[in-house]
Batch of 3 targets.
Target 1
Amino acid sequence: MSINFKALIVVLVIAATIFRLGKSVALTFSSEQDFSRRRNIWLVLTVTAFVSPSFWLFVLVAAPLLAWAGRKDSNPVALYLLLLHVIPPIPVTIPVVGIKELFSLDNYRLLSFCVLIPTAWRLRKTQDAEHIRGLGAMDFLLLGFGVLQLVIYVPPDLPDHSILLDSPTNVLRRAFLFFVDIYVLYYVISRFCCRRGAMTEALAMFCLSSAIMAALAVFETLRTWLLYGGLSRNWVEYAAYGSLSDFYYFRGGLLRAQASAGHALSLGYLIAIALGFWLYLRSRVKSARSRIAVTLVLLLGLLATQSRGPWMGAVVIYFAFSALGPRVLPRLTKAAFSGLLLAGVLSLTPIGEKFMNVLPFIKHSTQDESVDYRQRLAGRSWELIQQHPFFGDPLATVKMEDLRQGEGIIDIVNAYAGVALYYGFAGLSLFVGLMLVGLFKAYRRMKEMARIDLDFASLGACLVACILGTLFTIGTASLLNGFEKIFYVLTGLAAAYAYRGRLPKQR
């Protein structure tokens, strides 16, 4: 327990510093009352998590606090995004008498139950014309993908290799969890963020949350200490989160930071998206010192994750945003010069040299085994997809035993391959189609707004760039944890942006 208290002190000091220094930036987009309440809740939940020997004691404090905050906050989406990773997503099974397993609960689902679902209920009853009414094409694509997942049952990859059978009860459970985990998230964000102020405030709170995790990530890498690792040892006992050493992954001799994201890849992706949001938000911040400071914190945090897919995703976002704005050639030239300058400065430092060595296109990369695994996975996945192209093979994992890693899992580090393997091209069409429709709608509205409202067009360019970066990055990682949540956050924001652009008055 003592190591948890030491970690708590470090987390509180770093977070309090970021909150204090970032307050002036946050107040550009939020009211002081909302900011103070959100900050205090973040701090209370963090302290509660570190001192609670049981996850259920944490829930006892967090649930009423989140429900109260969701009702009081003028922008529940902003609250949700700030608290999305206040603690790592550690699933704990709900104990129920007479039933082997109900379902697991983690911070994501707790936020859904306490913040998103009540907000969805209030939105359902509102008659405000500024909110999307009814179901659109993106709703039907998402619901179609959900129905396909109910019809095609993919059994979990259990350590003992047993295959669980489906049942009517399990179908109801999966339908309920699809609603709680995915649809309600998309629904609330697509409906609530139709106002420009609500959308920009949500982006700002996500950037604030990511800045805290980025600062923590830098500390973790420099001190070789995962600050949130002790929580899992206190709350769960099974192998996936059983010991602190299971969390420690190194690349090029440096610890891959995780902060509260649950995995280095997830953290890298979250920070990459935050950088994309910041490309737009920084234009509304007057202080040059603040603009530079936030950018540096996010960049250093991204480097600390040593996650190559998110690194490249951030590059895609940066150049896409530069290409989508006005004066394309000067912006692209500036973007290229800035990238080369950053790479040059890093290459002159000992730490920068280590980071350069883990890039996938460097010949002496320290992670050739990782590249080899991805190549083998791609080849085997394509073989299995060709055998069941239309609706996939729910037992595909059984046929990939030779790809099982030392951690005991078959890591399908490609979201597209994962969907196509289990749900075929039918599922892949619905999955990718959802984001492509959002991308097309947002891009079209952005081009229209470029003639009458440059600021709103820049917001659209930010969303389009982040979607493009996501489409690239999920080809290098599974759609788990932060990847899944932000995937649906971005689709919801794209739908809200496209709808807002049709309204006669912009706010």
Target 2
Amino acid sequence: MCRMVNVSMQHGTSGVSANACGYLGFILGPVFHRYPEGYRFAKLACDLVEKNSFIASRAKVYTSMGLVAVWTQPITSTIEFIRAAFRTAIETGDLTFACYNMTHVLAPLLMRNDPLDAVWRESERGLDFVRKARFRDITDSIVIQQRLVATMQGRTATFSTFSDAQFDEAAFEAQLTADRMSSVVCAYWIIKLQARFLAGEYVAALAAAEQAKPLLGAMVGQIPLLDYFYYTPR
């Protein structure tokens, strides 16, 4: 990312330059703990796409801003950028980033303490969209977050399982194989850690934490990583 930004400074900007600024901002905060500078780079990315009408890069840049803003801005700002990224992705035909943002919005809604019924409805809309797009990993990413909501709402068979009439926990875990997106697999185990901790099933929670641990690099800069460290003893 640094190389891309430096080349842009030397030879001129493009839509890809804006992407580079946005994701450099994403890296600066969580990795190097330079959160204000990270936000400024993401803001620069947004300014570049708006000033120069880099329409094809707009959804990607708004996505990076949504991921960056959570560290320095009110959580509502993050949600607004993610929603804007989804709308822009639809307008510009960027189906991949449209799907990404249908899953990115759920964690900040939970962090903002939105009513669980509202989060569930949001997840159902997202699930319908990404299933039509046939994006398997993002479909499962939304299903994973639904399991936490379902558990807290008392929808599952017991408070100590994700299983219900429509979901088989053991079967789902069996298909979380090495060829899947690491972030999706890691998110599942983090959410299971959280759910089992809340259920008082501490041995199961620790087992889930161990499953997540080698995959944490895939979650850098994302809200679920906070839950991992919050619920895991040091």
Target 3
Amino acid sequence: MDQNLATFGDTLTWTVGKHNLKMGADFVRNYAVDGFALNRGNPRGLLTYSGSGTTPYANFLLGQPPFSVSYINSPRPAMIVHNWESWLLCAG
């Protein structure tokens, strides 16, 4: 996964007479490329275990051969996602 995070934030305290005003803001942009299928040996396929005598999960843990195997010819492309986050604070 390739991730790029940019953050900008600032605060301001302003005193007017007997009043203290506190303000702040924080902006975050998160951009990520999830290359799971591309960067981890191209995992492709589905292994299905049956429950003969035990549960399918137990057969998997015991290293038994799967009941069926199916393959996908090409991995999915990398997912590119991004989002913005912002926080505003005002206190007096």
